[in-house]
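Checked the freezer inventory, then went back to the computational side. Two predictions to log before the end of the day. The first one is the construct we discussed on Monday; recording sequence and tokens without edits.
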Amino acid sequence: MEERQGVSNHKVSFVGRSNGIITGVKDVLSFDANEIILDTEMGMLMMKGMELHVTSLTVEKGEVKIDGRIDSLIYSEMHNGKKQAEGILARLFK
């Protein structure tokens, strides 16, 4: 994946709250029918909804395709481009 210095290749694009493509994905941390957690270039991204499916994962491109009903997108906190220790996963495992 080509990355310009200082510019992220992270992009989130959804059509009708049901089909989406997310780029700049480093890893899929967890997923089930109600929640998907991704590690992206911009921090942890948690998506909540119903009947969520990861339909495609292209590791080389850092791209994930998702379908289902998307209700919310939540990013973890970031500080100077780095994830803080008190991110989504840290809060989940307290």
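The second is the one RB wanted added to the comparison set:
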Amino acid sequence: MAADNPVAAWTRGKEGDDYMLRNATVELADGNTTTVDSLPLLALHAYSVERVDPDGSVWVRNPHGPGNGADRGNLVRVPAGDFDNVFYQVNVGGL
């Protein structure tokens, strides 16, 4: 897979049945990270996959960007152990 291919992941669930990440790590626009007690990932929603850490954690971004009501458009770290529980489909563009 080429590094420049866009990757999207779709969340599980049904509308209104959001997945709540506890003690979520969020990367802010200035590059700093913070931890929030809980952060919703919207059910039946596509997220842009921005990067994968060596430990398998996946950083995703809501494509609605800054100002969206769920996560303000920041990068959100999904721990490797939670990824399969939250997302059901991944698509790599350009393949």
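For RB: The first helix runs from residue 80 to 86. Residues 29 and 74 are 7 Å apart (CA to CA). Let me know if you want it refolded.
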